[in-house]
Amino acid sequence: MSNDDLFKGYRGPGRELLERMGVAVWSDVEVTTDKGSFRGLILPRSETADDHHLVLKLDTGYNVGLDARVVTAMKSFGRHEAHYKIPEKDFPYDPAKPNVKLFGTGGTIASRLDYRTGAVIPAFSPGELYGSVPELADICNLKTEKLYAVFSENMGPEQYIGLAKAVAREIENGVDGILIGHGTDTMSHTAAILSFMVQDPPVPIVMVGSQRSSDRPSSDAALNLIHGTLTAATSDIAEVMVCMFGPTSDEYGLLHRGTRVRKMHSSYRSTFRTISDIPLALVDRKVVQPLRSDYRRRCPDRKVKLDAVYDDRATILYYYPGMKPDLVDGLIDKGYRGIVIAGTGLGHVNKPLYPALERAIAAGVHVFMTVQTLWGYTQMYVYDTGRDLMELGVVPAGNMLPEVAFMKLGWALAHSDDRDEVRRIMLTPVAGDITEREPPDAYLVLQGGLPEVDRFVKGHRM
Amino acid sequence: MDDQNLGPDSQRRYDDREFYQALGLKCGLEMHRQLDTTHKLFCRCPVQPYTSEYHAEILRHMRPTLSELGVYDPTALMEFKTKKDVVYRLHRDTVCTYEMDDAPPFGLNRGALERAMVIGVMLNLNLVDELHIARKQYLDGSIPTGFQRTTILGVGGHMMVDGRRIDIRQLGLEEDSCREVSDRGHRRTYMTDRLSIPLIEIVTEAQMYTPMEAARVGSAIRRLCHLSGVCRTGLGRARQDVNVSIAGGTRIEIKGVGSLRELPALVHYEALRQKALLEMRDTARSRGIQADGFEGAVDVTAMARRHRHPALNIAWGTGTSAQAIVLRGCAGMLATPTGPGRTFGDEVSDRIRIIACIDRVPNMAWSDDPASFELTELFGAVRQQAGASPADAVVVVAGPAADVATAISEVRIRMQEMLEGVPRETRRSLRGGGTRFERVLPGPDRMYPDTDLPPIVLTERDFERARAASPEPLWDKETRYAVMGLSPVQIERLFTTDAWTIFEAVAARSALRPTILAYLLLDWVPALGRRGVPTVEVDADLLVRLFGDAGAVQWTQKDAAAALAQALGHAVHWVGKNASNGTAEVGA
């Protein structure tokens, strides 16, 4: 064993003390400090914590920290090393059940403790998943493949392309459904880009994650996995979807179209919402119940169209009052080829930005307008500002969500640099990224505190 | 101690050292007290009076997860078998997204930490230098996260009780749990207003050897908490658990003891229950009963439907069934008494109710039960089918098929545990000193580090502040009061009514005998209050004004009482010439 393993995570005074006393991590010790004596197991230290405390696990299971600088004596009684491991069981195979492939990219859907950082890290295999969520075996035969192990904010073009290719490959191999475990922060970005890169899939492509990590008893991970697996295995909806909790209660999940979904709360379980439309379907432990009929159906004979290209010279500009044109100039200078603006109201920015936008467009930069209100369409004829911007060459992107337009622009730029062609690609809906109409109930954000909402909430679990 | 309900005979009986020594009785206490903070422990919700009003409900399920050392806790696995729908009621003034587990914790409430450290100093604990927040798993649903955030402030402390040193194992600071509203079948409902109120847990070593001694230590800890001035008082703000074991038995944790008055009987009957279980084990061994003697389960749905026994009187339909289990060599054993009005059959029935969620009364029919004589034919048929004899006992359970399967498996588990003696359990107190099974006793494997919060470093300044805020040790103060002539009951009441602060201030500055001062504060002022005399102005200043003149004659209790009454504008009859009206109804 290397010295670093012996003193896992310890640095500075903490490590010096352990070395001097000849005590390694996982030793059962009695430590005497200026405040008394403590008996327990020396645990590894998180690398992000300070360097002068020892962590001791008492026999009651509690951990305490002791200041290494006030330790006067240490006595060792042997070692007891722990191995945190999710119990693995062979995932059963049943020829009568559909075959689902689960790709792992990271996130807390299946995770375990990481002593290095003191946080949770992803971990999964079919055996581990079966060990912790045995219900999955009632639904399908599951195979898993760990593509990445990253927090979702670390997903990027390389991972998008790799994931899209892997999904297409498995579809060609004949699986009945694809499940993708993903961190929730950028799940909707990945759902959007997959919608463009993997077109016309013959089977469901379902993204799942969890808002509460799977190492806690109240986690939404298991239920999201069950819902997602049931969708991938049995649903008739052959689209890229996000499958996450509907209400915060453990009741049902919602299937959101990959291009119309957004994470709307930093921590709530029911954080995902379909914006400017209604969700595709509702899913519980037993059945997928479509809420609409205009979806692409499962069709095993259909050939999937893989179009996994991406140009990372696109950006998103979140407009704020008083924004200065040098930001846009900077983007031109740095070689950006596409800008999605999240404008105010119907799609506006201030006048001082006009000359800079004009220069950008003259330099061949493609500029599209979306709305930071998220709900609703751009409409740039209503006010002069909008007309002026269109005159400059800024293209309104309908009701495409800002992040979706940004993902699509990166994809479009990898196809063409021609102004009209890029515009054509952007404004031609691929998978519901722009819709023709917003139904009247597509914008429902209940306002708490109103008597009628109180009545509704009390009668229906949140 | 507060012992109105325990007569001197009971007190003597529950303090019979020889009797309990023969049993090898040992008890330890876990005392819980809410801290007197304005806000909760990990969020900014205010602490408010309890209410049954709510605005919304959420539903959750709990799944067991691994401990830090990679092991499942047995309690967690047991709770998972119950497949409970847990419903939480939310009031918008008392809970936020944190309590409903839809947001990560905010920082630990520093005010709560400072208060808890005062208790830590008072208990002479070895305080830790860095707090690590842990998640203690609770799969019963009493906390929506499925775990309680808790941390250890110190270990290895002690206090003095009746001149004897009692060791304190540890002091924890944790968030309080939900209040249970109901628990029927597979649904448990909780109110969330109490959730996350800062709570301290004081754990003693198992050093109490009679039931009365456990109560006296509990009472001393209660006084210490009052003396600290950092604890919340009032109904539902304090709870205690008691751990009981006898020689050859097991540590049993009795939860939710609301009042210390109940404690001696609970401890006493738990000791006797363990003794009864150990005797049963010996009987079973001498009869040659084996762990594989509980294997035979027989489907008796068709027969059970024809009988009108209350345990079989269910709404029969598709999905319901009845099963019988044969307990080889166990005839008569389920009728063994284990507690006040309880038999071993009740222990088995509790498991069925808690784990299989069949909560009809009765929820099983058993061949030892005299009330089941009309099922003789059914039991006979089962015995015949299973190749059993009248020396074997039979238990029949009816209900939803999945629950019945769980129930039969639980009966088997409980019978196998019978062969081992006293199974590790958490039990709930009942009226009259009995207890019932609540869950399998959890162990250290339910602990997991809280990855949402970094460790909190305590500095010398924190320790210094806590030392400065800690009053004189309880036992020193009590010794002083005893020397002044106060009775143990008076001392107890001075603390529990918080009158000790006035007592201290006046005793040092007046010529009044301390026993008279205590009488005025504890008895006379409340008596005046009951007669409608406003007593809010009774404070140290008033008493010093009245009795502070050291040169005055020695006050008698009667004169002092009259003087205080008059100062409050009230005349008493025994001061004849000043009495003007209403003298008759006042008495001292």
Description:
- The complex is a heterodimer of chains A (462) and B (588).
- Chain A has 462 residues and is of the alpha/beta class.
- Chain A has 3 domains: 77 residues, SH3 type barrels (Roll); 208 residues, Rossmann fold; 114 residues, 3-Layer(aba) Sandwich (Rossmann fold).
- In chain A, the strands form 6 sheets. Chain A has an 8-stranded mixed β-sheet, with helices on both faces. A 5-stranded antiparallel β-sheet of chain A has the order 4-3-2-1-5.
- In chain B, strands 1, 4, 6, 7, 8, 11, 12, 13, 20, 21 and 22 form an 11-stranded mixed β-sheet that branches. In chain B, strands 2-3-10-9 form a 4-stranded mixed β-sheet, with no helix packed on it. A 4-stranded antiparallel β-sheet of chain B has the order 14-15-19-18, sandwiched between helices.
- In chain B, helix 5 packs antiparallel against helix 6.
- The longest helix of chain B has 25 residues.
- The interface between A and B is large, with 61 and 66 residues.
- Strand 4 of chain A pairs antiparallel with strand 5 of chain B.
Quick take:
Chain A is an alpha/beta fold. Chain A has helices at 3-6, 12-21, 126-132, 157-172, 187-197, 221-234, 326-333, 354-362, 384-392, 402-413, 419-427, 451-459; strands at 27-33, 36-43, 53-57, 63-67, 71-79, 99-104, 111-114, 119-122, 141-146, 177-181, 198-199, 205-208, 240-245, 253-257, 261-263, 272-274, 281-283, 288-290, 305-306, 314-318, 338-343, 366-371, 395-396.
